[in-house]
Every structure is written in structure tokens, then in C-alpha cells.
Amino acid sequence: MPAFEYRQAQEIRDAFARNEVRYLFIGKSGAILLGFSDTTQDADLFVEKSSASGRALTQALCELGFDLTKEQVGEIERGKDFVQLKNGPFDLDIIFAPDGIEHFQDAWARHVDVEGFPVCHIDDIIASKAATGRQKDLESLPRLRAFREYWLRKNP
Asked: Which residue of 46, 101, 105, 154 is most buried, as measured by CB atoms within 10 A?
């Protein structure tokens, strides 16, 4: 499986902008856009949960080349907490309720704009990783926390 690439982030940004989908890059893909030196196999997106957003999101995903099943369309339109897509040009995780973050609006208020990419603040990325309790996320926390210190010095 190929690694997440900047080009994919651009494609997501452009399709989501055309369809007026409010979202944030989160997870390792978000950290990478902030400058974290690592790789990931997919893009993780925290999407605002609403019926209008769900419909706009399915349209944007189809434009990107995802072959959505009826079940996936239903899950996206009703805002299922987590929808994993592997039936498109790249792997994508749609997250309507990430661990460690209460409300989209709160994360949006803290987000960082990186070259037109809306990205969760590093503190939200770390909080989400810590809250999952998954071993692979817990193992990445020391490096993410070290990156946080560097990032905050560069972005006061």
C-alpha cells in the first residue's frame, strides 16, 4: 500500500472546497502536514457532522474516485463515528467523532491552516492519539510530543 502523499491532500482539499465540506486533517496525516517527519498509509479526516455535510461529502468522495457502496453512503450521510474507505484512489478514514475531541467546532476554533489545508492543532492530534488506547498510537506519542515542542517554538 503506497504512503499518503501531498498530492492526495491537495485532491482532498480541492474536492472538499468545491462541495463545501468542512473538515480537518487529523491523525498522522495531519501531523505530517504540520511538518512531522513520518509516513502513513492513509489520510484521516475529521468531518463536521450534519446531514448536509454528509451529502456534500459523498459527492466530493465520488469526484475523487471513490466507488462508494450504498452502505457506505448511508454511513457517511448519517455521520457514523468512523468510516474506513479502501475503495478509491487512496485509503481514507472519515471520522465524525474522534477519540479525545468533544466537538468539531472546538477543534475548528483551534485548527491551523497549512498552505490551504485545515489541520487539527497538534494538541488535538496528540489528545486523539492518546485517547484511542491503541498500541500503535501510544507508541507514536513520545515522538509526537517531542515534535509538539519543536512546532510550538516555530509557531508561537
From this structure: 46
